[in-house]
Amino acid sequence: MxxxxxxxxxxxxxxKPSSKKxxxxxxxxxxxxxxxxxxxxxxxxxFYPIINAFVGAFKExxxxxxxEGEKGYTxxxxxxxxxxxxxxxxxxxxxxMQCLFNTFVFTFISVPLSTLLALLISVGLTRIKVLQxxxxxxxxxxxxxxxxxxxxxxxxxxTIVGTSRNVETYGLMNNFLSLFGIKPxxxxxxxxxxxxWGSLNVPWxxxxxxxxxxxxxxxxxxxxxxxSALQNVNKQYYDAAKIDSASKSTVLWKITAPLISPMLxxxxxxxxxxxxxxxxxxxxIFGADMGIDYDMGTMVGYIYQYIxxxxxxxxxxxxxxxxxxxxxxxxINLIVSKKTVHY
Amino acid sequence: xxxxxxxxxxxxxxxxxxxxxxEAKALAAIDLNKEKARDKRAKIVGAILSYTxxxxxxxxxxxxxxxxxISSLKPEYEYRRSVPTFFPHExxxxxxxxxxxxxxxxxxGSFLQIIVNTLVVGLVSTSIGLVVIVITSYALARMxxxxxxxxxxxxxxxxxxxxxxFTLTNYLTVSKxxxxxxxxxxxxxxxxxxxxxxxxRNNFKQIPNSLYQAAKVDGLSDAGYLVKVMVPLTAPTxxxxxxxxxxxxxxxxxxxxxxxxxxxxxxxxxxxxxxxxRGAKLYNGLYGTTMALTTLRMAxxxxxxxxxxxxxxxxxxxxxxxxxKSGTKG
Amino acid sequence: xxxxxxxxxxMVFLAALMVGCERQQATDYDKTIIFYSSQGDKLQGLTKLAxxxxxxxxxxxxxxxxxxxxYDDVRDKIVSxxxxxxxxxxxxxxxxxxxxxxxxxxxxxxxxLINSTQTVLDKDEKEVVIGYTAEEIADFVPGYYAExxxxxxxxxKDYGYDDDSMFMLPFVKSTELLYVNETALIKAGFKNAxxxxxxxxxxxxxxxQGATLVKKYPTATVLxxxxxANWFITxxxxxxxxxxxxxxxxxxxxxxxxxxxxxxELAGYYTKGYIVTQMDYGAYTSNLFTKGADDxxxxxxxxxxxxxxxxxxxxxxxxxxxxxxSRQEDGSINKSVISQGPNLVxxxxxxxxxxxxxxxxxQMTFLFLKELLNPVxxxxxxxxxxxxxxxxxxxxxxxxVEHLAGKTITARxxxxxxxxxxxxxxxxxxxxxxxxRTQVGNAxxxxxxxxxxxxxxxxxxxxxxxxx
Amino acid sequence: MKIxxxxxxxxxxxxxxxDKEVTAVNMMNIDIPSGKLVGLxxxxxxxxxxxxxxxxGLESPTSGHILFDEEDVTELAPEKRGIGLVFQNYALYPHMxxxxxxxxxxxxxxIPKPEAKERALDAARLVQIEELLNRKPSELSGGQQQRVAIxxxxxxxxxxxxxxxPLSNLDARLRLxxxxxIKRIQRxxxxxxxxxTHDQEEAMSICDIMVVMKLGIVQQIGEPQAIYDDPENLFxxxxxxxxxxxxxxGQIKNGGVFIGDEExxxxxxxxxxxxxxxRPEGFIYSPSGVLSxxxxxxxxxxxxxxxxxxxxxSTKPTVRSIIDADVKLEDAPVLKFNLxxxxxxxxxxxxxxxxx
Lengths: 343, 330, 468, 356
Description:
The complex is a heterotetramer.
Chain B: H1 2-19, H2 25-72, H3 76-79, H4 94-100, H5 111-142, H6 148-158, H7 164-176, H8 184-187, H9 194-206, H10 209-217, H11 222-233, H12 235-251, H13 254-259, H14 267-272, H15 294-328
Helix pairs in contact in B: 2-15, 4-15, 5-9, 5-12, 12-15
Chain C: H1 2-22, E1 32-37, H2 41-57, E2 62-67, H3 71-84, E3 90-93, H4 95-102, H5 110-114, E4 119-121, E5 127-129, H6 134-139, H7 142-146, E6 168-170, E7 172-181, H8 182-187, H9 203-216, E8 221-225, H10 228-239, H11 257-271, E9 275-277, H12 278-281, H13 286-289, E10 298-304, E11 318-322, E12 326-327, E13 333-334, E14 337-340, E15 343-346, H14 355-373, H15 375-385, E16 388-389, H16 398-405, H17 409-419, E17 424-425, H18 433-449, H19 454-464
Parallel strand pairs in C: 1-2, 1-3, 8-9, 8-10, 14-17
Antiparallel strand pairs in C: 3-15, 4-5, 6-15, 7-10, 7-11, 7-14, 7-16, 12-13
Helix pairs in contact in C: 2-14, 2-15, 10-18, 11-18, 18-19
Chain D: E1 3-12, E2 22-32, E3 37-41, H1 48-56, E4 63-68, E5 71-72, E6 83-86, H2 98-108, H3 113-126, H4 142-154, E7 160-164, H5 172-189, E8 192-197, H6 200-206, E9 209-214, E10 217-222, H7 224-229, H8 234-239, E11 246-253, E12 256-259, E13 262-266, E14 272-278, E15 283-285, E16 291-300, E17 304-310, E18 319-324, E19 334-339, E20 344-348, E21 354-355
Parallel strand pairs in D: 3-8, 3-9, 6-7, 7-8
Antiparallel strand pairs in D: 1-2, 1-4, 4-5, 9-10, 11-12, 11-14, 12-13, 14-20, 15-19, 16-17, 16-19, 17-18, 20-21
Helix pairs in contact in D: 2-3, 2-4, 3-4
């Protein structure tokens, strides 16, 4: 095939010198040939879906699964968004506000917490010499894991097995807490304690489990980045600080942290953006229904739920809202980091 | 308390050493000895603190893995002891046998079938994906053509958009094309990873232009230059990309679950079938009950995690390199 | 020039690879019947026999049986398939799944096939009538057969069906049964004059036994109920409280004073240690039943007749009974019990080459369906699965008769279930009916475990269903 | 404050297996009187910076002692020694303003803020940067950064001020200016100051006391002029002076010092092979001189001129002699010179030690 094409091109070339210019132009554009596979794939699987999502979100009552021959939607407008935001989709399942709230809670607690912990651990790592590599490896391990698999492992820490009248095991966490005289908590079971604010559920015990998992799984990447950032800090600053009688905590908070602030702010941005897309771990810990009746639902979980229900319009509207949320946070983060980052 | 003490001593020291140097000499001599002792102590205490803190953190980082492994080796009744045992009293390898022979899903995906699926999809998508990534980043880094910058900007812009926005349409697209229950559907949509293209393009750009000119003088074609010069030079990144792409396939869950039936799904889907809500009740051969058996679940989880650890031990440097690179260049 | 060749070659290589990947499935849709189920291994083997028989009888036809995990997986997969026209020809279903599929207009109206007098030729060139005779129709357990009628579904007319339409046929069925630890009851002093255990026949009786039982067995729970949703729905049915309706104006009736009072009552029992449910325990309560009363088990257990084998134990004397009923104002006892288990739905072929092919395939699919409903097959399937057959003639099949005579708990369950034929009910099906199920189940769990007040739990459930 | 260094030694462990360990400082003994400006001078790798860091406490010595006044501070942590240290590239905290940088040590000593501010201002005034207090280090020129670094070191009123190559990052003009500045500040504050440099001119111009080091061993200690005029060994003679000293291979024979066949002077030392060092300014042009050199070319500098000549006995390619501009030279290929006695040094050819 290729030979033929080539021969044809050669023939054209020799017969029509006037087309040489065109041929030269084509030759100069041969870069397109290299990017063609990527461009075609992206056109189908990236660009088209983006456009389609924007269009589909405005098709009211859009259901890709609908009577054949009909267009599958009733009109154009903002109804999908309104109904998603109001939680009035008529199909039951997760409520968007609940999912949004959950996602915010997980993200805004776990990301700063794990960044802080990662900073402390990285600083600790730079202070030791013996076994540094070994510790580094152990801290990196959680990065490789499968969120669903490890979610299941975490679930076992918190699960109470048995009936209220005959508990077989309270689970590792409750056993641990009982050492401090804390009464067992039904962390993830059906009797898990929760507060209710209006239509909003606040299953705080489950939040704690989710946040512990998020912190744990967020650490490796952050430690890796912060540790290498710390090693790139000019040692002289530490010497100077020593001469200036700075205590260890002063060095950490007034010198080290500001010096690696670009990395910290990078980690916060990516952490927040990643946190907004949390899903698999929640399924791993709390099951495919994300808790009881989606009370642990996340924004991505919300979208998938409607994909599976065939409520296409709601799924699109949900994904656009997720996109908007992520954009807002990226924007805020950029502005804030410009003000506080020192280079 | 301690802080206060330190503060006082510090001030005292100031006073003795700066202001009243002469008079305080005798006193200072004693103080100095104390100081030295305290410095030494502080150093040791500091080291102990660092190690203690790190060890505690490492313990908690590692605990889930440990728990996963020992739980998978316990018989269920031992797992259910009200006071957990931190080491199995009895090694119970039957859990693994039970999981491996799990036949409740039968023709819809034995363990072997699923492993084959995962390997095929992983290897094919990684290798083709790598070719696409390399040629695309090469063109973006080294070649001139109309609209290049626009294309690159567009690509970068899509990185901001959450993948969930693509999923639904892609799902509709592949359903429409009748690609459900094929490997194609697991491979094709993920061949292009804009992030890796971006990474590799930057890598290519860092290679000095003089090398390109030298290669031209030596009569190397563009493609030859790519294969013989650029690829070897960027090998560490390429290896990292390969590994991370493979790991991504291994861990993929949502998409295979959405588009394919069980016998066409991948390893993570298979494992999760044994998880809480409905799947776990399928395991009943071993204990004759319908209980969601934690030990079996843990055995399944161990099996799906193990290859990742082997990969990590073998390619630790490249994986960490790749991951940290993705950190600094994002 | 060389580089152009190279890059072109590269492209060709890529294209070839992609095409190679694509060409994996060559299915002749016209002559392959695709069947989705949620069967496990053992049952798949059984179904294979029916498939083999069918394929042998009609050469050229193939049945691809694809189990999909659970019922929800079957539904999710079909919803996905419908969007690409890849739906199966035959599938396991619940009524609410069908309500969902109905919207596509692709659910086959089986009434036409049931009544069809057309014939097709089998391998011996023998004419086989497609439809059922009137007797054959009468052979179905009436309560089961009625569930598939159009009237049980909401809005069917909107999708081009009429009053006589038939959307599904019963495959095998289950119901809820009361498994009783008779030994424990007798020990606690609940015995009849003849020394047999005095088993509660109404809820009030059951609760009245509670105090004695929890005192006698300090770690035991009085009642384990596997399905919160079923409990709620059954109570609504027994007492006429109202659960859901097919009327589009107001599908959801369950948020009312009666249900609220009942949930409050249950919450009280829960704190006394009378109740454990599946959600609460985290697994089927049959596990608790088989433990025995002295080891923290349950004394009464309400679970599916299909799951009878899981209730089997040698630890104590067990018995199988109908679930408790509710005493009515007139003194009678309403013993309504829910009917569950898979039905079979047919969907139009999405990829057939012509309308004729589509029509033919429908007929052949129906013939395969009849194969699955054949009494001999039903008998074997019922024995192996513990479900009840959907046709009455199956009870005459020798193998099944022998099975029922057995002393096993599954046999006992079948016998008891058969006596309940007149008490079966099913709840209306509409888009969102399964959502209502989930919601009332959750509401029961929330209210009973004390996480929400009964009023709040019901109101939330109502709101979550999208009720106004 | 007086600094006493006793038998100070620092060895670094080998970097790679098989390498030898490195002795950066070897048995160093110095007494630094209070209030003096001391320069540690030597080529790179001579251990001068290591010495400075040991004085600061950032490095701990392998053996030996450091005494501030009479107290042994060898094992005392840096922050407790009461020292100020100016780093080679200043190590100003990039995220703090100039004022915050200067105040930083005071804040750490928990000095009340008003007082700290005042002292910071004083220090800034001393180094004349009081108008830059609100800037960030990245907004300052190299010279300004240098001053900030000094101010930060001085603000806590250290007993000892240590400067690591303080001028190396500045351009030539600033360097001249800043070294005067350092001298001035040192005089004004009277703080014992130790600084490290590899530039002998810099050291000579501002030091009260100069310590010349080579490969971790102190070669000579003394006032700059004294060392220049009376070097202990060939290395010191060679290292000091611009243009550098001329070195010839020579012999002592029969009470005379010979370069080649020419006897340049009489001596009482016994016969031996020697190096003869002659400072460029030690030549006196005289047609009847004792040393003849083949003239290559003559560089006129204005105030004086250099005769660049070639001698096969010189250890360097050329021999440079500086003579007054007034002196008229004959236009001949070979010129003859008499030598100033005090500018001629004899060194043993093997030990390279001075023969006095």
